[in-house]
Amino acid sequence: xxxxxxxxxxxxxxxxxxxxxxxxxxxxxxxxxxxxxxxxxxxxxxxxxxxxxxxxxxxxxxxxxxxxxxxxxxxxxxxxxxxxxxxxxxxxxxxxxxxxxxxxxxxxxxxxxxxxxxxxxxxxxxxxxxxxxxxxxxxxxxxxxxxxxxxxxxxxxxxxxxxxxxxxxxxxxxxxxxxxxxxxxxxxxxxxxxxxxxxxxxxxxxxxxxxxxxxxxxxxxxxxxxxxxxxxxxxxxxxxxxxxxxxxx
Length: 249
Ligand code: 1GP
Prior knowledge:
Layout: H1 4-14, E1 19-24, H2 31-43, E2 48-51, H3 61-71, E3 76-78, E4 92-98, H4 104-120, E5 124-132, H5 140-145, H6 155-167, E6 172-176, H7 187-196, E7 201-204, H8 210-219, E8 223-226, H9 228-232, H10 236-245
Parallel strand pairs: 1-2, 1-8, 2-3, 3-4, 4-5, 5-6, 6-7, 7-8
């Protein structure tokens, strides 16, 4: 097992560099759509592809990851909604524990059941404290996970949750308003959480403009994740990537 991707993230953070991850939901892209997204992402110098979804109803994940690996060198990181969204063709796995929720299945239960299979995959495993923040509308992830998101004005709850995740030994905190959130996570909450943890902070959900992506980075996010907006308008990938990378030395 290697640790290349996590070390890349850590060394980026050490230099205060910001990174951009494009989220691919295997249900939503056609083969042609995937190929053109890859082409745009390569030109735009996207740092990572995240692949997965809260509810994936097709069996294209494996094939999509293989296609990405065949056509570019952008690392592919699995962002699974459930243990069946795992393929050893990817580079790494976000090993998510839903620490904002109180559903034992998503805190530890599913991890126990899938542990031998995950280990066998040979993937780089990145333990992640996953925090769902209220994005103004029930999202697929809040419904499927059967958990309440953290209210978006309760910075203290978000701070304490992230701190606990870090002290439990998790390697990343991922604050997510959920795919297609009406409201992205408020900058003030990102700033407060970033101030209280040392591990890298990933922020996603409802980010639709380069301005918002950049603002989140300036507030302390290390990696920005965009899914829906990039699916609707793949050209946005270039604009958001440029905005994020403009902050790097
Ligand atoms: C969802 O953070 C991701 O888990 C991305 O959200 O699809 O709203 O960009 P969007």
